[in-house]
Amino acid sequence: MTIMFNKTPSSAAGDRLPPRVRFTGLSAGHPGRPVLEQLDGEIPALAVTALIGPNGSGKSTLLGVLAGVIRPTAGEVRHSGTRPPAFVPQRGAVGDTLPLTVRQTVEMGRWGERGPWRRLTRRDRTVVDEVMERLGITALAARQLGELSGGQRQRTLMAQGLAQESDLLLLDEPATGLDPEGRERTAALLTELVADGVTLVHATHDMDAARAADTCLLLRDGRLAGQGPPDRLLTPTALAHLWQPV
Ligand SMILES: Nc1ncnc2c1ncn2[C@@H]1O[C@H](COP(=O)(O)OP(=O)(O)OP(=O)(O)O)[C@@H](O)[C@H]1O
Hints:
Number of strands: 10
Shape: globular
GO molecular function, one term: ATP binding
CATH architecture of the largest domain: 3-Layer(aba) Sandwich
Family: Belongs to the ABC transporter superfamily.
Keywords: ATP-binding, Nucleotide-binding, Transport
Order of helices and strands: EEEEHEEHHHHEHEHEEHH
Bound molecules: adenosine-5'-triphosphate
CATH topology of the largest domain: Rossmann fold
Mean pLDDT: 89
CATH class of the largest domain: Alpha Beta
CATH superfamily of the largest domain: P-loop containing nucleotide triphosphate hydrolases
Radius of gyration: 18 Å
Low-confidence stretches: 7-14
Protein name: Zinc ABC transporter ATP-binding protein AztA
Helix content: 25-40%
Structural class: alpha/beta
Largest sheet: 6 strands, mixed
Strand order of the largest sheet: 6-7-8-4-9-10
InterPro entries: AAA+_ATPase, ABC_transporter-like_ATP-bd, AztA-like, Metal_Ion_Import_ABC, P-loop_NTPase
């Protein structure tokens, strides 16, 4: 098993960018539970990739591997970026009872840069201010995480991810449970982030969000069932096959 970070991305003008992440023969899972089996694929740079598949097909596990929080049991994951990825988990995965305000939660996004016990610099505070403004949560700064609605908590976690200023943002179902306006704002934000130089991967059950992505990875029972642009990949036949019982 190998995980590599390449510090020198080649970006000669006009060249097709190398993928931000390439994985080959990738197997991974949880203690006593193998999930992903022998995946070969890539995450194109400066694009939105949607991970699609039924419940339990391995989307969150793949995000965990890309984020570096789950170690592959076999295969290779090769990163071409210069910064560690930022991972935004499903909002349900974050405890309601954590005694943290919204601002403190977003500030944790700077810990990778600063360490948890150091004072934040002026620049750190500016980054935190900017991402909170961008996500529309400035007015919630002093509220406890546990007092927020689902959508507000989702935006707070997203702000924490953005505060890391990574060039690879991994989002686990960022729009689940949001109202239509919230889903539209999330979709617009993803497009803006790519324009800002971020590579995005999001797991989703929302077919509109998947169709708006540049590329899709279809997972079925821990295996890669397809990879490519949504108009080619998300055909009625492919989707019917994906959701057939294994
Ligand atoms: N912490 C864990 N320990 C053991 N098994 C786990 C753990 N997390 C997930 N699993 C199992 O791994 C498999 C893949 O789960 P994963 O969360 O990656 O699927 P998913 O495609 O993201 O599902 P969903 O759409 O429901 O979020 C499932 O069988 C799940 O039960």
